[in-house]
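Sequence, please.
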């Protein structure tokens, strides 16, 4: 039985474009992998946009990171040496937020300003929080340093299409939310 031929015939009858994109072996028989829904027809034209979106996303990320890093309460870590970012969001850490209540207050203050912030460790379903990994059998390790970091690590959407005014709005909302919770920064030793 040529499963690929059956799918091609069914796709032709339904008027759906069928394009073979690869092959796999199923029970010793080669089977075509097909793009029966025309997904490649949608994706291929967008491939030319990827370099621009990466460039724009990285420029937006770096611009907002520079603003957030000027505050004592927010820190965007630099990329790891082998890492090349293609961001559509910005991750940052809350600095000096000693309690979950302060982190939640920051989220609320940002939301009041129109910006949704996800704190990885305060989310019930964030995949970055290892304690949400219910698919791993057995006891979950404690990992206290990782847990502490995730309890103050944040994520905000930052699409590549945003304008400079929109980036300023987001950065200002986050900075003002941090100051709402932590108050004015003091000079060292005062």
């Amino acid at each position: 039985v040529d499963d690929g031929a059956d799918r091609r015939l069914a796709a032709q009858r339904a008027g759906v474009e069928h394009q073979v994109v690869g092959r796999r072996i199923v029970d010793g028989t080669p089977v075509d992998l097909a793009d029966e829904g025309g997904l490649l027809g949608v994706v291929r034209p967008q491939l030319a946009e990827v370099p621009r979106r990466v460039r724009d996303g990285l420029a937006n990320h770096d611009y907002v990171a520079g603003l957030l890093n000027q505050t004592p309460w927010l820190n965007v870590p630099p990329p790891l040496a082998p890492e090349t970012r293609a961001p559509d969001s910005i991750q940052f850490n809350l600095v000096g937020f000693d309690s979950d209540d302060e982190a939640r207050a920051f989220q609320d203050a940002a939301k009041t300003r129109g910006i949704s912030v996800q704190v990885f460790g305060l989310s019930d379903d964030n995949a970055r929080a290892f304690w949400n990994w219910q698919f791993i059998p057995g006891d979950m390790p404690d990992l206290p340093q990782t847990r502490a970091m995730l309890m103050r690590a944040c994520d905000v959407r930052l699409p590549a299409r945003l304008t400079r005014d929109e980036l300023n709005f987001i950065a200002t909302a986050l900075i003002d939310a941090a100051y709402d919770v932590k108050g004015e920064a003091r000079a060292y030793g005062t």
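The mean pLDDT is 77.
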